[in-house]
Structures are given as structure tokens and as C-alpha cells.
Amino acid sequence: MTGICEGRIVVVTGAGNGIGREHAKLFAQEGAKVVVNDLGGSRDGSGASAGPAQTVVDEIRAAGGEAVANTDDISSWDGSKNLIQQAIDTFGGLDVVVNNAGILRDRMLANMSEAEWDAVIKVHLKGTFGPTRHAAAYWRDRAKAGQPNDARIINTTSPSGLFGNVGQSNYGAAKAGIAAFTVITAQELGRYGVTVNAISPTALTRLTEDLASVQAIKDASGDADPLAPENISPTVVWLGSAASKDVTGRVFAVFGGNITVVESWVNGPSVDRQGRWSPGELSEVIPDLVAKAAPGADMTGNRPVQG
To answer: The domain that contains 176 carries what CATH number?
Structure first.
């Protein structure tokens, strides 16, 4: 039986552990040729090792699939360029980039250091920009040369970025940026035959194992199966396939067997006096607008029930 991604050439960043590992393995199982990228660092981004990426490659090859390892730092310009070029040089092209790499350095804002902010923004936000930018240039040049593309970018945002989470101002800001980046690049790259979507996964990995929200789900379920990283990958692999060509600019929350389209910011209640307000007048206006507006979502993405 032919897989849904038969013959497609796929790059997955941060694929040495957790969700990325499952993405790479399932893409290969569905017939893709995979470049497994992982710097091999720790949860906070420190250190490096070729072991995690190569281990996943060995597992894919043992199962009859095709894969190569890459240990470039995707948060650097040259590293992300090398990664994309390796896919092209090794397999003869590129069809899909899955931006999954990430680290955590959680801290309450008043205690957060500049280094903790910079490291997280660099890995998540610049680490999504870099591979996407170099892949986009490759697909643009193909399109200009009259060669068709059926290409995909799949980014990774988070409930922390979409709905907020205490202690993760750096991580949440990066993930919110990735969601906006997804919408904008989808608008830019469609002309070249490229779709861009994002997932917001909830799963138990080394990055999330000590988060209270994740632990609460595990405790409520009685086991960790609903939080298994393997639950996330089918949506990502489908988004990477030819079947998803009409879906772009969307964010999907994925948890267990649940897939939700996350609806973006929209205008709520408004008032227009057709002229300039004085600051004092707004004491009678803005609180009323806020009272009429729908409440913000909680970490599950749902609005609180109002009495």
C-alpha cells in the first residue's frame, strides 16, 4: 500500500526526541524521504550531540525507510541554510518543512534574564524563520523557472502562545509570533505553490513533563496515553501531503484524538463617534466595550462559562 507522502522529501527540525521524532518516523512510514534535524541539546538548549538525530535515522532505516541525519543549529542563518541544502543535495528536492525545534527556559517575568529571553526567542522564532526562508527561496526560484511546486510548511505554535500561560512570557511570545508568521507567510507563498499551516500540540514530552496544565491532564486521564506524542503526528503528516493543498494559513490544536481549528483574532464590540475622543470621555466608553466583549480563552482554548 502506497503511503500518503510517498516520494515526498521532508525536513523535520527538532526530530531527535518527543513530537518531532514521531513526525519523522510517521513521514517515513508514509513513504517520505526524511532529513532528521536535531542539535542534540538539552531541554534548555545547552549542549549538543549527534546521537538523537542518528538514532531516529537508524530506526527509520531499520523499518525500511529513507532518512539522513542533520545536526545544524537551525536558529542560525547558516545552519538553517545548510539544512535545507542537505535535503536538496541528498534527495534531489524539497517538498515539506516541519518547524518543530524548541527549548524551554521558564521564569516569572520579574526574574527572567536577558539570556533566558534571547535563547527561547532565537530557537523558536528565528528557528522557524530560517528554514522557512531558505525553503521559500528555493520554491520561489523553481516557480520562476516554470517548475511546479506542491510544497508545505508546517509550524509549531502552542497553547501558551495562543492563550497564555504564567511563567512563559518568552516561550509564549515566540509561539504567538509563530502563529502570526504562519498567517503572513501563507499569504506570501501561495503564489509559488506553497501552503503554510501550524499546529498547537498538547502532549507529554521532556519540554512539558513538569507543566502543571499537562500534569493535570495526565492525572485526570489516569494514564499518559491521551498525551502521547504519537497522537500529534497524523495531522502533521496529512498537512504535509498532497491531500492538504487547499488548506493554508490555519492553526490546528491537536490533543489526543481531538483536532480543532483555532480561530484567529477578530474584531469585537466597537464604538465610533466620527471624531476624536478626549481621554476623560473614555471612562464611560472603554469599560462598557470590555463588558460586552467575549472573555478570553483559558489554556484549553475555551472561553470560561459565564453565569
So the answer is: 3.40.50.720
* Residue recorded with cell 517548475: 147
Phi-psi map region of 242: left, alpha, beta (phi>0 left; psi -120 to 50 alpha): alpha
d(CA 24, CA 27): 5
Structural domain that includes position 105 = 9-262
Catalytic site residue 171? yes
- Looking at the 3D structure of the chain, how many domains does it have? 1
**Catalytic residue selected from 25, 175, 200, 244:** 175
Each of the 307 residues of the chain gets a pLDDT tens digit; together they read 579 999 999 999 999 999 999 999 999 999 999 999 999 865 556 666 778 999 999 999 999 999 999 999 999 999 999 999 999 999 999 999 999 999 999 899 999 999 999 999 999 999 999 999 999 999 999 999 999 999 999 999 999 999 999 999 999 999 999 999 999 999 999 999 999 999 999 976 545 555 555 555 555 555 548 778 999 999 999 999 999 999 999 999 999 989 999 998 999 999 999 999 999 999 999 999 999 999 988 888 888 876 5
Q: Which of 75, 171, 200, 244 is catalytic?
A: 171
* Cα–Cα distance list, 194 to 109, 137, 150, 197, 232 (Å): 37, 11, 6, 10, 22
The one catalytic residue in 158, 160, 169, 233 is: 158
Say if 299 falls within a structural domain: no
Residue 204 belongs to some domain of the structure:
yes
| 233 belongs to the catalytic site | no
Is 274 among the domain residues?
no
Whether this prediction's pTM lies above 0.85 is answered by yes
Q: How far apart are CA 194 and CA 85, in angstroms?
A: 18
Is-catalytic flag, 158?
A: yes
